[in-house]
Write a structure and sequence with these properties.
Bound molecules: heme C
CATH class of one domain: Mainly Alpha
Number of helices: 8
CATH architecture of one domain: Orthogonal Bundle
Shape: elongated
Structural class: mainly alpha
């Protein structure tokens, strides 16, 4: 390829410099601060607007630790089929990714966490009170995220009842002796202790 003559280079440079200068004087350069110089209201440059009445909820349950919730909050719902069905929907959508559909841990994203998702059907987790599970859903736990913004209070109680039904199912499954041969019907009622 033939190299362009020196004057052509110079002309190119001069045109570039001129374009830059023109862009700068037109306010188009540097573009990195365009958003800052725009029409936006700058932080605190105007007094905040008054909120219309009723914008902020004032009748919710005040924030509290799980330890306090564990003893002060009680489930207002009964485990009707409709409540359990709603709880199952919510659990499968929000919790099963970590705790698995059966609540026993080992959900598909559990491996990403520093602590394994708890088995909700056995050990300490199964001994927790309704209020404690409710507050765990609302506030989160050590590594578990809170779901306070994703579920209403009513929905959280529905999930609590569904977790209870998962615990009953797990207990029933554990009560059936693991053996070969004909499958015995799962007993309908199994005492917890
Ligand atoms: C991102 C993964 C993740 C999701 C989603 C998740 N959890 Fe957890 N959960 C954990 C982990 C991890 C633990 C154990 C470590 C901890 O306490 O943070 C746990 C612990 C718990 C505990 C036991 C707390 C205790 O101290 O005994 C309960 C109850 C619980 N989760 C319920 C739920 C419910 C109900 C949902 C759905 C609304 C849910 N979790 C969604 C990860 C998750």
């Amino acid at each position: 390829m033939k190299r362009p003559e020196a004057p052509v280079w110079w002309l190119g440079l001069v045109v570039c410099a001129w374009l830059l200068l023109a862009a700068h004087s037109a306010g188009a350069f540097p573009w990195s601060i365009d958003m800052f110089r725009g029409e936006a209201v700058q932080p605190l440059s105007e007094a905040p607007r008054n909120m219309p009445a009723g914008t902020l909820a004032i009748n919710g349950v005040p924030p509290m630790s799980r330890e306090v919730a564990a003893v002060t909050l009680h489930n207002p719902l009964k485990p009707t089929p409709a409540v359990l069905a709603a709880g199952k929907d919510l659990f499968d959508t929000n919790c099963a990714v970590c705790h698995n559909n059966d609540g026993r841990g080992g959900g598909p994203v559990g491996f990403l966490l520093r602590l394994p998702p708890a088995d909700l059907t056995s050990g300490v987790a199964a001994q927790r009170s309704d209020g404690y599970i409710y507050a765990t859903i609302r506030n989160g736990s050590i590594v578990m995220p809170g779901y306070g913004d994703a579920m209403s209070s009513h929905e959280r109680w529905e999930v609590v009842l569904y977790v209870r039904s998962l615990q009953q199912q797990a207990n029933a499954a554990r009560a059936v002796p693991q053996q070969a041969g004909p499958i015995h019907p799962v007993p309908q009622k199994v005492s917890a202790k």
